From TrEMBL:
Gene Ontology MF, one: ATP binding
Family stated for the protein in its record: Belongs to the AAA ATPase family.
Keywords: ATP-binding, Nucleotide-binding
Pfam families to which the protein is assigned, alphabetical: AAA (PF00004)
Protein name: AAA ATPase central domain protein
Domain of life of the source: Bacteria
Organism placement in taxonomy: Bacteria, Pseudomonadati, Bacteroidota, Flavobacteriia, Flavobacteriales
InterPro entries given in the database record: 26S_Proteasome_ATPase, AAA+_ATPase, ATPase_AAA_core, P-loop_NTPase
Residue intervals of the AAA+ ATPase domain: 68-215
Length: 295
């Protein structure tokens, strides 16, 4: 059962995730924001101790902090780094807290089979495993990737009874993980935040928005991925320019467009008998269009 409902089961900390995190542009500021928020939820006991130590009482606000849930929603267009960031955040979090962790990624194909009646079961099974893994010194993370299909708003008229039931189950399970006192964290990623049920959105401790890279980030991405080739500042600027929104009808290239489409194609045009040049790169970019935005 476990293998079939999860795409991926990872033990944390993981050296390979940490290695990949190094190449994630803009990760540090995202992580800072999540960690400063989440440490309040993950360490309720510590917070009460802190309050008593410095203020002699348990400040009322501490009780109110509990109204939030260890739920992080990652929202943004395709290819903006939601999935890689979920793993990176989980890995970094266990390192910061000096704990061990378990990362479960719900298998989206199972969900995609469309047997609506089974979605509720799937959610139930995933959370039982999450609870089972949330051991004493271990933090268990569950990623429901591309959660739109499970978590769409209950008010949609055409929604099947079974789908509504699955959303309700999900809300109930989110409520239950609070009882695990910070040993379980749920990530949900979505391309369409406005489709996610508002009761779920309201519970999220953090909604992290992912965007396509801005100019500086595109420069950084080319620079970092091609370190060892000596491009001038001007050339890097130009690569960033021609992959930006101004030169592409208002919508620039995504992180994955650059990393997983432009660069591999440019390499394919060079390998095995030519060096990878600036000209090959610009030529490749001119033949590729940014992936369309998901609305
Ligand atoms: N911040 C980033 N810095 C560098 N590369 C990134 C970044 N975000 C995404 N990528 C690249 O894009 C690819 C797709 O990211 P992914 O997490 O699958 O996007 P999403 O889940 O939002 O569709 C990653 O494998 C990585 O190569
Ligand atoms: Mg993804």
């Amino acid at each position: 059962m476990i293998e079939s409902i999860f795409d991926n089961i990872l033990e944390l900390p993981s050296a390979s995730i940490a290695e990949r995190t190094k190449n994630l542009i803009g990760f540090e500021s995202k992580f800072e924001r999540i960690f400063s928020n989440l440490k309040l939820l993950l360490d309720q006991e510590g917070l009460i101790e802190w309050s008593k130590k410095f203020h002699k009482v348990e400040l009322p606000i501490i009780g109110q902090l509990k109204d939030k849930y260890p739920l992080i929603i990652l929202a943004g267009d395709a290819g903006t780094g939601k999935t890689v960031s979920a793993e990176a955040i989980a890995d970094r979090m266990v390192r910061e807290l000096k704990k061990e962790g378990f990362f479960l990624k719900l298998n989206t194909r199972v969900r995609g089979e469309g047997l609506h009646g089974q979605m509720g079961n799937l959610v139930n099974d995933a959370f039982s495993e999450l609870k089972r893994q949330a051991g004493k010194r271990r933090i268990a993370f569950l990623l429901i990737d591309e959660a739109d299909a499970i978590a769409s708003t209950r008010s949609t008229m055409q929604m099947h009874q079974e789908e509504k039931a699955a959303v309700n189950t999900l809300i109930q399970k989110i409520d239950e993980i609070r009882e695990l006192n910070g040993r379980a964290v749920l990530f949900m990623s979505t391309n369409r935040l406005h489709f996610i049920d508002e009761a779920i959105v309201r519970r999220a401790a953090i909604i992290l928005e992912f965007e396509r890279p801005i100019k500086e980030e595109r420069i950084e991405l080319f620079k970092q991925s091609l370190e060892g080739i000596d491009f001038s500042t001007k050339q890097l600027e130009h690569l960033a320019e021609i992959t930006g929104p101004e030169k592409n009808d208002g919508l620039g290239f995504s992180f994955s467009d650059i990393r997983l489409r432009i660069l591999p194609e440019a390499i394919a045009a060079s390998f095995p008998d030519k060096e990878l040049t600036y000209e090959i790169l610009t030529e490749t970019i001119s033949k590729i269009k940014p992936s369309p935005q998901i609305i």
